[in-house]
Amino acid sequence: MLFLVMGYFDADKMNEKSDLEIDQIMATCERHLQELYASEKVLMDMGLEASVKQLKRESQQISITDGSATESKEVMGSAFVIEALDMEDALRIASIHPTTQVPEAEALGWRLEIRPIHYYRERE
């Protein structure tokens, strides 16, 4: 089975940190990411920019707005696709990610959300 894992963080808490502090925290993430990749279960990994555009059909037209549909301090910062036997296995694999391994993650509001993928089409 395939699973989409989305990583979130608290933007306000991250913005309180200096660039140097963020760089130091991110440096501690590297060994956990290498362990995650070594599992050979990560099919795709993406870091996401904070900027968001929203498309929505309203009154027979498509509207485009800046920002997320929901107001939140929480921002999606990453997404990755993993292959796992079932949700329990997906949880085991995702738990290798720095979100659950780096001590600073808790104070910065890092969390993961895991969803089964029901449809997947590879590029031809």
Can you characterise this structure?
The protein is an alpha+beta fold and 124 residues long. It has a single domain, classed as 2-Layer Sandwich (Alpha-Beta Plaits). 33% of the residues lie in helices and 35% in strands. It has five helices and six strands, in the order βααββββαααβ. It has a four-stranded antiparallel beta sheet with strand order 2-5-1-6. The longest helix has 20 residues, at 19-38. The protein is flat and about 50 Å long. The two termini are 20 Å apart. The mean pLDDT is 91.
Write the layout of secondary structure elements.
Layout: E1 2-10, H1 11-15, H2 19-38, E2 42-47, E3 53-58, E4 61-66, E5 74-83, H3 87-94, H4 98-101, H5 104-107, E6 111-116
Antiparallel strand pairs: 1-5, 1-6, 2-5, 3-4
CATH topology: Alpha-Beta Plaits
Q: What string gives the helices and strands in order? A: EHHEEEEHHHE
User: Which shape, going by the Cα principal axes?
Assistant: flat
Q: Helical residue percent?
A: 25-40%
